[in-house]
TrEMBL record:
It comes from Desulfococcus multivorans DSM 2059. PANTHER family: 3-OXO-TETRONATE 4-PHOSPHATE DECARBOXYLASE-RELATED, FUCULOSE PHOSPHATE ALDOLASE. GO terms for cellular component: cytosol. Pfam families: Aldolase_II (PF00596). This is Class II aldolase/adducin family protein. Residues 13-189 form the Class II aldolase/adducin N-terminal domain. GO terms for molecular function: aldehyde-lyase activity; metal ion binding. Coiled coil: none annotated. Keywords: Lyase, Metal-binding. It comes from the Bacteria.
Length: 220
């Protein structure tokens, strides 16, 4: 008898894979952070569970829900930050994945209450800057509202006294934004310890963002 396929099997496997990569890349520690994938055609999202270490995570631990929060597959409790994942999918129709990290340098910026300006062109992974959402207790509707209100058309957002959240059309692109913004946050921190960093202009960042649209290998 053929084994029944797991609901959103591919997306659940991606959550496990990129959860491990978050830890291996130093973007979070322990059970910190969370990530999800949203399949708009079915209206279902696969999200990491609460309080399970990424090296112990299996696809069966990943929770599948509707956008309204109804669990349709899985026995685990979803991440405590589910509400801001849902909010981001509602306000950005092109977003297919969300990554939340506690990466050291981006979190340092968030704890200082600083946005990240275009100190390096790779801030273009977010947009012309990385904005800052106001502080709210983790896992609350107030935090979700603050995230949804501050994200605008950016792909990365600092959460005051908390961490970083990134979005993308898929999980690889959201994860790439988290990695690159952590790099830029480190450069900005280091530059400010030495002197006053030079900031790129809006016009230059517009050129960079346009070049990003055609960067990389294209399908034949």
């Amino acid at each position: 008898m053929a084994q029944e396929r797991m609901l959103m099997e591919k997306e659940r496997a991606l959550v496990v894979e990129f959860g491990m990569r978050m830890v291996q890349s130093g973007l979070t520690t322990g059970t910190g952070g969370n990530l999800s994938v949203f399949r708009r055609e079915s209206g279902l999202l696969a999200v990491s569970p609460s309080g399970i270490a990424y090296d112990r995570l299996s696809p069966g631990d990943v929770v599948v829900l509707t956008l309204d929060g109804e669990v349709v597959d899985g026995t685990r409790t979803p991440t405590s930050e589910l509400s801001f994942h849902q909010a981001l999918y509602r306000v950005r129709s092109e977003v297919g994945a969300v990554v939340h990290t506690h990466s050291p340098y981006a979190t340092t910026m968030a704890c200082l209450g600083w946005e990240i300006p275009p100190v390096h062109y790779l801030v273009g992974f977010s947009g012309k800057k990385v904005p800052l959402a106001p502080y709210a207790t983790f896992g609350t509707e107030r935090l979700a509202a603050g995230v949804a209100g501050a994200i605008g058309d950016y792909n990365a957002l600092l959460l005051a006294n908390h961490g970083l959240v990134t979005v993308g059309v898929d999980l690889p692109s959201a994860f790439a934004a988290a990695e690159e913004i952590e790099f830029v946050a480190r450069i900005y921190y280091q530059a400010r310890t030495v002197g006053t960093p030079q900031i790129l202009s809006d016009a230059e960042m517009a050129r960079v963002i346009e070049k990003f649209r055609t960067y990389g290998q294209k399908k034949a």
